[in-house]
Write a structure and sequence with these properties.
F-box_dom; 19% helix; 7 helices; At3g26010-like; five-stranded antiparallel beta sheet; F-box domain-containing protein; Beta-prop_At3g26010-like; alpha+beta; 442 residues
């Protein structure tokens, strides 16, 4: 009995020690013995690890990275910025044939610029990528465009499956009052493309969006103050209409944004007053009527034009504001009612925070332009603009669809370089041909 107790205590101690190591070190320890492998792959161990795991978080505007928070203890061989985990060739503003498109659950969706029918889903951390096959014969002309990625997660945040979304058509209906969105969906569970037409009671009008738990939320320019939502894991063919909690309050002094935190869609609003900035935050409840719950109404002793940018994806008490006057980022702790002005590590030693201030300034000024030139209805502006990329919380393999081709990042980059080389050669040959024609030699 005493020996069994001692063995059990040693196992508990061993598990606690393993849970405090960096994730890649833990992954290597899986090969030590079957018992360690079984322990590390258990649900109990995964949850133990998540308790103290620092998060790696990247905020992007379009394809530009703005703010990076780096939890350096989680991954022992990551660079300071997780941006570099998405290879430069995958990002639109670099010359190359692979473009970054979307992310969900730690997985990234990239498109192939030289082959409009192809795209890839993978993990920049595990370096695994799934080559998504071309769309079906229902898209014979290849007119559909890669739009987004949704994932289904378990209760610990591990990706169980994913879906790739291609937009095939968009059509205004009922004298331009409503619309139909035709999409093609590829499921990692079946490895098959399916088609679907989703009906909306309004014109979408704005493809700015966020996605969470398989659902995309679109802004609706034609009717300010509402969102259009659709769960791509559901059988429904209808968009849900979600009315924002303060609609129709058209106060042009409000700065509003939609973001996510703690597994919920969050709606944040700031109002500048003489001696403080008032911040209100609502949470969209996961129920049938899409009701909103007011979580916070807090005044901070900061003055000026502060715009809400995003919330921490796991901590609903942390929100980030940008000062349009002083051009700095503020992290507000809603629970304690205090705030911290964040700066770049290169300037003031914040080793876990990196900010591209010039991009932030340009982006915020562009989005929250003066309301004096806008119609009254358009004073109700809700910016859905700051994309969150969170490093996977666990080193799980990318879900593999039936008969799918799996490749690593090195192979994918080699392929991108080769196709880019072929494209450049074709361009040069075409230019040479027309030059010869122009000079009468052909």
């Amino acid at each position: 009995m005493a020996m069994e107790t001692k063995t059990h205590l040693l196992e508990v101690l061993q598990t606690e020690i393993l849970g405090r190591l960096p994730l890649k070190t833990i992954s290597r320890f899986k090969s030590v013995c079957k018992k360690w492998k079984s322990t590390i792959e258990s649900t109990y161990f995964r949850r133990l690890f998540f308790i103290s795991e620092p998060k790696l978080l990247l905020f992007m505007y379009g394809r530009d990275e703005l703010i990076v928070f780096h939890g350096h203890k989680t991954w022992d061989d990551l660079p300071k910025s997780p941006v570099s985990l998405i290879p430069h060739s995958f990002r639109r503003y670099y010359i190359g044939d692979c473009d970054y498109r979307d992310s969900s659950g730690g997985l990234v969706l990239i498109t192939d610029g030289s082959d409009k029918a192809s795209c890839y889903v993978g993990s920049p951390v595990t370096q695994q990528w799934v080559k998504i096959p071309p769309p079906p014969s229902s898209d014979p002309k290849g007119d559909s465009t890669v739009f987004g990625l949704v994932t289904r997660l378990d209760e610990d945040g591990v990706v169980l499956s994913f879906k790739v979304i291609r937009i095939a058509s968009y059509q205004a209906t009922n004298d331009y009052l409503s619309s139909d969105l035709g999409v093609l969906l590829y499921s990692s569970e079946t490895g098959v493309w399916t088609s679907k037409v989703i009906h909306s009671p309004h014109q979408i009008g704005d493809m700015s969006n966020i996605n969470l738990n398989g659902t995309f939320y679109f802004g609706c320019l034609s009717v300010p103050g509402i969102l259009l939502a659709h769960d791509f894991y559901s059988e429904s063919d209808q968009f849900r209409v979600v009315q924002l909690p303060d609609y129709p309050d058209h106060n042009k002094d409000y700065k509003r944004t939609l973001t996510t935190s703690g597994g919920f869609v969050m709606y944040a609003r700031t109002l500048a007053k003489k001696e403080e900035t008032v911040l209100k935050i609502w949470r969209l409840m996961n129920n049938d009527d899409y009701s909103w719950q007011l979580l916070w109404e807090v005044g901070f002793p900061i003055t000026g034009n502060y715009a809400p940018m995003a919330m921490h994806p796991f901590d609903v008490a942390t929100v980030y504001l940008w000062s349009q006057r002083d051009h700095h980022l503020v992290s507000c702790n809603l629970l304690k009612g205090n705030y911290t002005i964040l700066g770049d590590a290169a300037n003031d030693g914040h080793q876990d925070c990196f900010i591209d201030k010039s991009v932030c300034k340009q982006s915020v000024d562009e989005l929250w332009r003066s309301s004096s030139d806008l119609d009254e209805d358009l004073n109700f502006q809700v910016c859905i603009w700051l994309f969150q990329f969170v490093i996977p919380r666990w080193m799980e393999s990318v879900p593999r669809p039936p008969q799918a081709e799996m490749i690593d990042t090195t192979s994918l980059l080699s392929y991108a370089a080769a196709t880019h080389g072929r494209m450049m050669k074709d361009i040069e040959e075409e230019e040479y041909f027309w030059n010869e024609v122009e000079h009468g030699r052909i």
